[in-house]
Amino acid sequence: MANDAVAGNATRVAQRRPGDGDDPVRAVLAAYTHDLITAVDETLATFLTAEVDSLTEIDISMGRFAATAREAVLVGGKRIRSTFAYWGWRGAVGGTEALPPVLPALAALELLHTFALVHDDVMDASTTRRGRPTAHVAIAEQHIAAGHRGDPGRFGEAVAVLIGDLCMVWADRLMAQATVPSARLFEVRRCYDQMRVETVAGQYLDVLGENDPASWSVNRALRVARYKTASYTVQRPLLFGACLAGVPVDDALVSAYTRYGLAVGEAFQLRDDLLGVYGDPADTGKPAGDDLRTGKPTTLLMLARELATPAQLRAMDRAGDGPVDRLAELVEETGAVARVERMIAERVSDALAALDAAPVDRTARTALTGLATAATSRRA
Fold first, then answer.
1. Distance CA 49, CA 165 (A)
2. Residue 216 to residue 269: CA distance in whole angstroms
3. Helices (DSSP H) in the chain: which residue ranges?
4. Residue 20 pLDDT
5. Which of 175, 212, 217, 205 is nearest to 192 (CA)?
6. Distance CA 172, CA 177 (A)
7. Which tens digit of pLDDT belongs to each residue from 329-345?
8. Are 99 and 10 in contact (CB under 8 A)?
9. What is the pLDDT of residues 158-187, one digit of tens each?
10. pLDDT of 48-58, one tens digit each?
11. What is the structure's pLDDT at 30?
12. CA-to-CA distance for 109 and 80, rounded, in angstroms?
């Protein structure tokens, strides 16, 4: 019965059409927001219940550990990667192809995302995620409450690394449940592996930038955005969806997805840079100003230093150890915020131009148009 419900939700995503007088973008976005995300979440919940039960049989403490990992996956999240992968697939196959055979592969991307988030929070020493304590912080608190020996912070970080690792393995196991031809699954796996390699590469560059900011530049910051965010948030999920549909790598649709995905993915990260400084924590679920406090060489900060007058640069250096609000004001006064907003708009325009000539299903074109705007003008 649960599988029938998932199939029904997924089918309605493809079948809905905007009615007369509707805003087509809003109509399609409303369709996927409920139905597709419901289908993905149900797939994840069913899969993770079986996995947690299996680990509980090893030891009751393993069950608690696995349940913490499951919570990290299921609590919150926009399911952006699954959504882009879905429309990459739907844009190739049209509106009649059944979704259940590929749904496990789409849902697996959310497990990959959780792996990246949990490890990223450890590396950044972040305390909150989606308005809740990060995994390593929550586990450290459990360590204290249980009265265990040793350093709770170190224990929390070690267990969080294992949670991320487990989510990576779970992603592989769930993807294997997709029912597509073996030869096609090989190509899907190749795309997925490239996504993972680029994610690690981007994460390393991000860590390196924090420790070697003097050698950083706007171009290098954009390279981090390209590999840490654009690749595994938009571009590779789209191409992953195309692979699931059996689209050849030299097809015009792949070229369009590549261009669209890079543009929207970079714009997505640029918006993240702005939200990290000027966003409302009630919306973002994270404290504002962390990037400025640590001197993280984001595109925003690199542009601010590039555009600043000598007097502004001296003021920014002096403000570095003071209230973050003052440093945020100085960054805006350089014109860097306005420049980043223009960069976002330029990339969205380029993404939409890539769609114009793409051989993509009409409903998918409408959805991808809406996604380009929704993903880059968000408040969280």
1. 18
2. 17
3. 2-15, 24-31, 37-56, 60-74, 80-93, 103-124, 135-146, 152-175, 182-211, 218-224, 236-244, 252-278, 281-284, 290-294, 299-307, 310-319, 324-333, 336-356, 362-374
4. 41
5. 175
6. 9
7. 999 999 999 999 999 99
8. yes
9. 999 999 999 999 999 999 999 999 889 899
10. 999 999 999 99
11. 65
12. 9
Closest CA to 116 of 65, 66, 73, 175: 73
In sequence order, what are the residues at sequence separation of 6 or more whose Cβ sits closer than 8 angstroms to the Cβ of residue 54? none
Q: CB neighbours of 267 closer than 8 A, spacing ≥ 6?
A: 343, 344, 347, 348, 351, 372, 375, 376
Q: Are 111 and 196 in contact (CB under 8 A)?
A: no
Is residue 85 within 8 A of residue 39, CB to CB? The reply is no
Cβ-count burial 223-232 (b if 16+ within 10 Å, e if not): bbbbbbbbbb
Are 253 and 92 within 8 A, CB to CB?
A: yes
Strand, coil or helix: 50: helix
Q: Return d(Cα 236, Cα 79) in angstroms, integer.
A: 15
Q: Are 242 and 257 in contact (CB under 8 A)?
A: yes
* Nearest alpha-carbon partner for 4 in 33, 39, 53, 32: 39
Which among 369, 327, 367 is positioned nearest to 348, based on CA atoms? 369
Q: What is the DSSP string of 156-192?
A: HHHHHHHHHHHHHHHHHHHHTT----HHHHHHHHHHH
Nearby residues of 378 by Cβ (< 8 Å), 6 or more positions away = 271, 275
Q: Mean pLDDT, the chain, as a whole number?
A: 89
Quote the CA–CA distance of 123 and 128 in Å, as a whole number. Answer: 13
φ, ψ for residue 133, nearest 5 deg: -60, 140
d(CA 283, CA 270): 17
Shortest CA distance to 13 belongs to which of 108, 105, 95, 107? 95
For residue 357, report the phi and psi dihedrals to the nearest 5 degrees. -100, 5
**DSSP per position, 12-41:** HHHH--PPTTS-HHHHHHHHIIIIIHHHHH
pLDDT tens digits for range 272-312? 999 989 988 887 777 778 788 888 899 999 999 999 999 99
